[in-house]
Structure formats: C-alpha cells, structure tokens
Design a protein that fits this description.
heterodimer, A: 221 residues, mainly alpha, MetI-like fold, 75% helix, B: 243 residues, alpha/beta, six-stranded mixed sheet, 10 strands, transmembrane helix (chain A)
Chain lengths: 221, 243
Amino acid sequence: MTLNFNQLWRYQDDFLHGIQMTLTLTLIATVAGMLIGLLGALLSNNRLPAVRLLIRSYVEVIRNTPALIQIFLIFFVLPYAGLRLPPFEAAAVALSIYMGAYSVEIFRSGLASIPRSQIEAGQCLGLTRFQVFRHVILLPALRNIYPSLTSQIILILLGSSLASQVSAEELFHTAAFVESRTYRSFEVYAVVCAIYFVMVLSLRLIFAGAERIAFRWPTRR
Amino acid sequence: MSFVDIKNVRKSFANVEVLKGVTINVEKGEIVTIIGRSGSGKSTLLRCINGLESIDDGEIRINGEVVHDKATDLRRLREKVGIVFQQFNLFPHMTVEQNITLAPTLTKRVAKGEAARKLAHEVLSRVGLEQKIDAYPEQLSGGQQQRVAIARCLAMGPELMLFDEVTSALDPELVGEVLKVMEDLARQGMTMILVTHEMNFARNVASKIVFMHAGKVHEQGAPAALFANPATPELRNFISSTH
C-alpha cells in the first residue's frame, strides 16, 4: 500500500469549513447546554415535586440513551410534529439537549459542594439570594466542577462527529465527502483524526490557561 | 422594652425540643454571655436571634422589630446584627479586602474603590490586621481569619454582634488575640451576645451571664455573683467541670 496525501490538498477549503462547523456546533452546544444545566441544577431542589420530577426525567432519559438516536429523533421524527429543522440546526439542538443533561448533574454537584455555612455567612451580611449565588457560590462552585465541565465540553466536541449521520456539514461529514471523491480512506481519516487531536489539545491548553486566570485564590491542600 | 427582647422562645428540630421557652433581655451596650453544656441550645438560640433559624413559639424583638414576622425585612435587619461563627466562614475566593467590602458595597453603604478600601483599612485596624488587607483567607492563621471575620462584621456598622463559640476552632495559642479584639469591642460599648466556653472571658467581660440547661435559662445574673454563688446544682457542676 502506498500512502498519498497529495490529493487531499485540493479539499483544504472543505476541511476548513468542516473545522469551523465542528467548532460552531461545540460552542452552541456548550453555551446552550451550560445554560440548561445551570437552570436545571437550580431547579432540581425546587419545592414543587413536579418540577423535580421533570428535571430528573430529562437527565435520566438523555443520559441513558445514545446521543445518535437523540439526533435522529430531532431530525427525522420532529418533522412529524410539524417542526422541520435543517441538519446542522437539528444537530445543534440535539447536542445542546445532550450537553444540558450532563451539565445539570455537573452544576448540581457544584452547588452541593459549597458548604451551607458559606451561604449563611452571605445571608447574615444582608445579601439577597441572588447576590449570595453570584458572589459567594458561583466562583468556588465553578472551580470545583471545572475538571468535569471541561471534560464534558471535550466529549461534546468529539461527539459532534455524530452530526454527520444526518449530513450536517461538520468535520466528519467533510471526511466522508472527501473520501468518496478520492477513495483515499486511510489518508483522509488519518488527517481528520489528527485535526480532532489538535483541536482537543488546543482546547485543553486554553482551559488550563483560563483556570489559572479565573481561579487564583489559594486552597487548602 | 429592652434592645433585644427574647420572650418564651420555643424551637424543635424534628421531635426534639431544643429551646423550651427561653426569655432573655439584653440592653443596649450590654455584653451577655451564654454558657452551658453542649446541646443545651445556646447556639440554636443565637441563630434564632438573627433569623437563621425559625422559631415555633414566642417572640424575638430587636430594637422593637419582630425578627420572625413575615413583614420584617430580614436583610435590612441583618445589616444591623452581625454574627461571627465558630468556623469563620470567610469567602475563600476573595481577599481580605473583598471579604470585608463585598456586603457594604452591594448594600450600597459605601462606593466601590477608594472609599471601600478605606473602610476595609479602618475596620482592619480595629482588629490589628491592616497589613493583611490583600491576603487570601487561606494564607492566614485561624486567629487572623477570625479577626478578619469580626472586621467584616464591623464594616456593616452593626448595633448588635453575635458571637457563636468564636474561639472553639482555634489552637489554644491563638485564642488570646481574638478575645482581646472582643474585649476592645466591649469596651467601646458594642452590644454583644456571645456563646462561649471561655469562662475567664465570661467572668471578666460580661455584664450578664446566662446559664442554659436543657433548653431553658436555668440561672442568670452578674458574673461575680453567679460564679461565686451558683444557686442550682447544675450550674455548680458546670462551673466545677470547667476548671
């Protein structure tokens, strides 16, 4: 077998487009998913049992079924309910919902990691509930969940390749496309694999840098 | 009416009645020390005074305002009632200055920036820790952290301060510096209610001692008289056990 990467050069723009779409998909799912997660976590000890049940069901259903099926449901089944989303949008919605379910659990553990006494100290200083959340709970909680949250974001980036199955034009979709044109399967997937690797590695470096800037206070070790 | 008026307060946790009708009056400028065995309800009572705990019966008034009334603005009330905890409860992600100025700036008592830093400096000088203004809590000793917690309270300009076993979590050699700060406050006329196991401090600084036993005020009075002539065997036992 002889390797031939030269043919791939012509598809530079397709790869770039794929990378861009993969990153966009990841960004949308991360931001939307984290918002869902934060809201869900705040609601998960709501007074109303119905609200708690709703959050619990959401988390369990999403976490215990394949992401691919969730994408299929949104793309193929939702149209029967009158909502027809283009592939990319369908994938973005599905991945956001997926990220949301994991984020609920992550944020919930973050909120639970802040001792009750910290909240009381805030209350005793005359702060509102929101002020306590914003100034007393948020940053220390984020620091505690930072490793699991960032791993989850990376899993979303890698998992966004599933979107290719509904022909959303992200990086893995590009790979399939280029492969069908060139028949250089090994070369194509080796390149795409390397691109994913570099993207994730860069993301990890960014996360590590951000951690050092955002969480500067010393802790007991 | 007294400045702090605690009348017939009852409080249960699940099936256990922790406070069984407690009545205590505190006048402005008084230093009231609550002593008693653990489990006698001292800390619970303190937490009821600033509304951290609800009560089942009775009434607590601070400066005439009913603490557990739904119409009472607890937040505004708490700006006047500071509490210092056994475990300091400083915010670990903030410097000493930020810890102190967070509430005063959020509640709009002082402007951010220069004025806030000045306030931090001023209250820190009252606890002798000006030089630690930019440190993080984790970089301070227990005694220093507790003094910052007191300074954080002072920054709100409280009219009443509650101290919940503030020296119990400290190494013995650090207890003195915290007690000294509290003595200074007492001398400056601060109204204080404190739960403590420091009998010498109670004896020397308090204007009134309240001995709690089994959820009730068992005995109360001026420290000299109370320590010299305990009327009940429970207090006699308690005093002899603390020596």
